[in-house]
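Wed. Picked up where I left off yesterday with HTH CENPB-type domain-containing protein. The coffee machine is broken again, so keeping this brief.
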Amino acid sequence: LFGLTIRDLRSLAFELAEQNQIRHSFNQEKQMAGKYWYYGFIRRHQELSLRSPEATSLARAKGFNKFAVGRFFDLLESIYKEFNIQPSDIYNVDETRILTVANKPSKHCHQPPLLQAQH
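Structure written out below (tokens, as returned):
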């Protein structure tokens, strides 16, 4: 999951309530749960946090071009074949996402990664 904006989360709550025929007092016109529902949800689920994604560095943005991306996927394909890796064997190992816009992004709600004990 790449994280949801607060509006996305509120809209998703409305959609889930509607699809599952759960009685609610969410805004029918805006088709989203209210701000107080959101505050309560975050209070009940403290494992979630709210953060603003950081802007992409200039070096990272320069490296994100057609040639570099094509080369990456060519190498990835050769590794898949060499080690017989199936797509279902792949897990998310990067907790960030690529931003393609330079303006300040909205805040996202997500579950922080678990800290691993160091040996």
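Quick read: The longest strand covers residues 49-51.
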